[in-house]
Write a structure and sequence with these properties.
The complex is a heterodimer of chains A (208) and B (159).
Chain A: H1 10-27, H2 32-40, E1 55-57, E2 62-63, E3 72-78, H3 85-100, E4 107-113, H4 121-128, E5 135-139, H5 142-151, E6 156-160, E7 166-171, E8 174-177, E9 183-187, H6 193-204
Parallel strand pairs in A: 3-4, 4-5
Antiparallel strand pairs in A: 1-2, 1-5, 3-8, 6-7, 8-9
Helix pairs in contact in A: 3-6
Chain B: H1 2-19, E1 21-22, E2 25-28, E3 31-39, E4 48-56, E5 62-68, E6 72-83, E7 86-91, E8 95-97, E9 101-105, E10 110-117, E11 126-133, E12 137-146, E13 155-156
Parallel strand pairs in B: 1-13, 3-12
Antiparallel strand pairs in B: 2-3, 3-4, 4-9, 4-10, 5-8, 5-11, 6-7, 6-10, 11-12
Classes of the chains: A alpha+beta (208), B mainly beta (159).
Chain lengths: 208, 159
């Protein structure tokens, strides 16, 4: 659908209609990942209090889920070798933070690396210095990362490439936890940007 | 009132043109390639990306079957795919551009993956990428290296 959209003029109309259809599908919950999201809410990955992972931040500090209670937290999985989807997610989050303005001060944003082998705390710090400074990175041993992904009900899979290198498939949504530590919503990569900030605000309104 | 509305309209049409430089555009036969850009890299270990817009003014399908560039030894065509909330990158053999249509390689969809990077991509520089088309043959375009934070070409497409 996005394919034909770039011819100016006539095709712009086609693109606009396609966009509206996409929004329609989103609103009606027909898209496959929305059904996945619905299953997630209320089951595993729904409550920080019940999680037991421990990770290391890009600043070298040990972090546990309980340390996030009391503030709204955005969490997403990714890795710094990811050339397309992860920069896009980081840029989206930067836009949301900008739109929230001073309200974003009470917000914590965390990228959990699904590539602990390459993403050491130092590598994360170097990479994240290119994005909004409020975004922190988390990594750990492969076992620690696996535990965290399991707690968040996120999936990732290392995919070897022909040249001996590898890439990682991973859950791409941004999870929003309210200050009580409960999963409030998930913002999908292809979610209409205008729904993202209201989702974050809804979580922030849940005072402890 | 009418006057200020008219002035605003004029401004609205002028501003986008002056805010962006015009994209480099290369035409060969029925194919026009434009808005080629990439993101700056940290060192050479990570793969870089390549985004571009391809227009086909011909009467039949054209196919992009590969890319080549001196900055990477293993450039490939990829697509980011979302499945059950998970992002996956898959290799694509070809990208079809329908007659009188355009296809964009853009964030979150089709993109060039520049693996085995030979040189760090520095913001503000350009590098050549050759697109290999089934019918139109190779088309080379200068690709702008934008900041790591860029999400689209920094030029206005004259499509």
């Amino acid at each position: 659908m996005r394919r034909g959209a770039l011819i100016r003029g006539g095709a712009g109309m086609v693109a606009a209609v396609g966009f509206m259809l996409a929004v329609g599908a989103w609103r009606s919950g027909d898209l496959p990942w929305q059904q996945q999201v619905t299953e997630t809410v209320g089951t595993r990955g729904a409550d920080l209090e019940s999680m037991s992972w421990q990770l290391t931040s890009h600043e070298g500090e040990r972090v546990s889920p309980q340390s996030w209670i009391g503030q709204t937290s955005l969490v997403f999985f990714g890795f710094t070798w990811c050339p397309d989807v992860c920069p896009m997610t980081l840029l989206n989050i930067s836009d949301w933070l900008e739109e929230l303005g001073p309200d974003a001060d009470g917000l914590a944003v965390h990228l959990v690396s699904v590539d602990p082998e390459r993403d050491t705390p130092e590598v994360l710090a170097d990479y994240l210095s290119n994005f909004d400074p409020r975004i922190s990175g988390l990594t750990g041993s492969p076992d620690e990362v696996a535990r965290a992904a399991d707690d968040f009900n996120a999936t990732y899979r290392r995919v070897p490439r022909d040249d001996g290198d590898y890439t990682v498939d991973h859950t791409a949504g941004v999870m929003v936890f309210d200050p009580d530590g409960r999963l409030s919503s998930i913002i999908d990569l292809h979610d209409d940007p205008k729904f993202a900030v209201p989702k974050i605000r809804r979580a922030m309104e849940r005072e402890v | 009132m009418l006057k200020s509305t008219a002035a605003a309209l004029v401004l609205a049409t002028i501003l986008p043109a002056s805010a962006f430089a015009e994209c480099v555009e290369v035409t060969q036969g029925n194919i026009t390639v434009s808005a080629a850009w990439s993101r700056a890299t940290i060192g050479t270990e990570r793969p870089a990306v390549f985004y571009v817009t391809i227009r086909n003014d011909g009467g039949s399908d054209e196919r992009l079957v590969g890319i080549e560039t001196p900055v990477a030894d293993m450039p490939m065509l990829h697509e980011s795919v979302m499945e059950n909330g998970a992002a996956r990158m898959s290799h694509v053999d070809q990208i079809v551009i329908a007659p009188i249509d355009a296809v964009s390689l853009e964030p979150g969809g089709y993109h060039g993956m520049l693996m085995d990077l030979q040189t760090e991509l520095v913001e503000g520089t350009t590098f050549p990428v050759t697109l290999l088309f089934e019918k139109s043959g190779p088309v080379t375009i200068d690709t702008a290296v934008l900041p790591l934070r860029a999400r689209e070409a920094a030029c206005e497409e004259a499509l």
